[in-house]
Amino acid sequence: MANTLLSYLEKGKIEAGCDEAGRGCLAGPVYAAAVILPVDFFHPLLNDSKQLSEKERELLRPIIEKEAIAWGVAWADAGEIDNINILNAAILSMHRAIGKLAVSPDLLLIDGNRFKPYGNILHKCIVGGDGKFASIAAASVLAKSYRDSFMREIAAEFPLYGWDKNMAYPTKLHREAIRKFGSTKYHRMSFRLL
């Protein structure tokens, strides 16, 4: 399939694409990334991270980091998710990622339909944005690859839950492990774990 991602929404504005990863997981943080790409950035593989293999995401990550005008990655942990709920935690992690950008954007392109204003920067919510705009797709790749590598790290600490494979999504194996061994400090206690 030809890659037809758009370079920008509004010509002449510095736009940062924002996306998160791990909203539907039972454990671990929710990660977010914000990426400002050059208008002429193109990579044939770049797409919504859900459409890419792990290998493709790992290949794209250093390219995005090297060629982006600015990028930031941040997260909110399980405790924060339990305190403020997953939607607010996802937005908080996006705000944190935007705060790490070395260049201040004029416009934020947010994947999804909910966001809270960040400072006085304008934002536009775009449902399915990670399949429409290059900057959001790049943010989705960074958020997902950073979260996956964190989940692989903590999988070594708690190997019984299969996080290195399921990334803490509610798979059958993950739920069976929770039933058998209980929850860990990384589990989101506000979620229906079983």
Concise synopsis of the structure shown:
The protein is an alpha/beta fold. The chain has helices spanning 54-67, 78-84, 86-99, 134-157, 163-166, 172-181; strands at residues 15-21, 30-36, 70-76, 107-111, 122-126.
Strand composition percent: 15-25%
The run of helices and strands is EEHEHHEEHHH
- Counting structural domains, the number is 1
Sheet of most strands: 5 strands, mixed
CATH topology: Nucleotidyltransferase, domain 5
What's the overall average pLDDT, rounded?
A: 96
Number of helices: 6
Assembly level: single chain
Quote the distance from N terminus to C terminus.
38 Å
Q: What is the C-level CATH assignment?
A: Alpha Beta
Task: Label the CATH architecture.
Answer: 2-Layer Sandwich
Helix content: 25-40%
| Overall geometry | globular
Q: What does the radius of gyration come to?
A: 17 Å
Protein described:
This protein is an alpha/beta fold and 194 residues long. It has one domain: Nucleotidyltransferase, domain 5. It is 38% helix and 16% strand. It contains six helices and five strands. The protein has helices spanning 54-67, 78-84, 86-99, 134-157, 163-166, 172-181, and strands at 15-21, 30-36, 70-76, 107-111, 122-126. The protein has a five-stranded mixed β-sheet with strand order 3-2-1-4-5, sandwiched between helices. 44% of the residues are buried.
